[in-house]
Design brief:
By secondary structure, this protein is α/β, with parallel strands linked by helices. Helix content is 29%, strand content 31%. Helix 1 crosses helix 2 and helix 3 packs across helix 4.
């Protein structure tokens, strides 16, 4: 993919206004510049006269020390990393009044979670974006506008036209890669509500066909993630013995979370499965509940923090 200078630079002013970044701001980020989200915000921040505080390792305690030592005003982390940072502040009963903006994307977040952040970061506003590497930012939603439905991704960015056609996102923007055209379709499914807000329903390959029924792995993943102690989850359809069924992989926030549910004996993992099934039965249809559960210490991930499902 190739970009013109203008497709990056000319959008910085628009995105910085929404993200509350730019001249005079100090933004904390973590991770590789191979991740487009990091690269874009580095350039936007530096081009506008702002400062960047960068961490390489995944160490929320270190992040907290760096954020406070450098007096960061903004933080850019994907949701799973934001949650890890929030838990450190909660465990230490710390409050940060200096941060005014959290910017996040690539994963989902809901209203209840946004409210939780206000306890440790009372002056901060969360902005969750939806975007694509080839198109730049597409939509955004403020934490104060988030709802229980975590697929809500909000309204279009300024100077970006977005619409839903045949259950897919269509985008027209002059800030995309060279040759993208005036009607870009990137394989993302979605819908709008009565207010015209957009919802991300997953990619085409997130829709599974389970014995004649279409189910959304994204919807199931979000339901599993609300189970107490679950940090991350991934769902895939598995074909075996002539039948399709759903399989879920789970990473816990910490081992103690699982022990509280299943007991200290690791042989009681069946109790955990049963507890999760009962929890999901109140939120999903019978055919949406995974048949097999796998517990991992961590997921294989891309540079952007997305789970590599093909490796599961």
């Amino acid at each position: 993919m190739f970009r013109s200078f203008e497709s990056w630079h000319d959008f910085f002013k628009l995105q910085n206004k929404i993200f509350k970044m730019g001249e005079g701001s100090i933004t904390f980020m973590q991770g590789s510049l191979a991740f487009t989200g990091n690269l874009n915000l580095y350039m936007a921040q530096l081009a506008s006269g702002g400062s960047v505080v960068a961490a390489d390792s995944f160490d929320p305690r270190l992040w907290k020390r760096m954020i406070e030592a450098e007096q960061a005003t903004c933080v850019y982390l994907i949701p799973v990393k934001l949650r890890a940072l929030r838990r450190i502040y909660e465990r230490e009963q710390a409050v940060n009044y200096r941060i005014i903006s959290f910017v996040s994307g690539s994963q989902s977040m809901g209203g209840a979670e946004a409210v939780q952040f206000k306890k440790a970061f009372p002056e901060a506003e969360i902005t969750l974006y939806y975007g694509a590497s080839e198109l730049n930012y597409i939509t955004y939603i403020r934490g104060s506008e988030m709802k229980e439905d975590t697929t809500l991704v909000g309204r279009a960015f300024p100077e970006v036209d977005v619409w839903i056609e045949n259950d897919h996102f269509h985008v027209k923007t002059r800030y995309g890669i060279l040759g993208i055209g005036n009607d870009a379709v990137i394989g993302d499914c979605g819908h709008t509500d009565a207010e015209g807000l957009f919802y991300f329903d997953g990619r085409d390959d997130d829709i599974c066909n389970i014995n004649g029924r279409k189910v959304s792995s994204l919807r199931i993943e979000e339901a599993v993630r609300t189970f107490p102690g679950v940090a991350e989850t991934a769902v895939k359809a598995v074909h075996e013995h002539g039948r399709d069924y759903l399989k879920v992989w789970i990473v816990w926030e910490k081992e103690a979370e699982r022990e509280e549910i299943a007991g200290s004996d690791s042989g009681k993992s069946g109790c955990t499965n049963m507890a999760i099934r009962e929890f999901l039965a109140e939120r999903l249809a019978d055919y949406e509940i995974p048949r097999e559960f796998v517990f991992l210490k961590e997921f294989p991930k891309t540079e952007s923090g997305k789970i590599r499902k093909k490796e599961l």
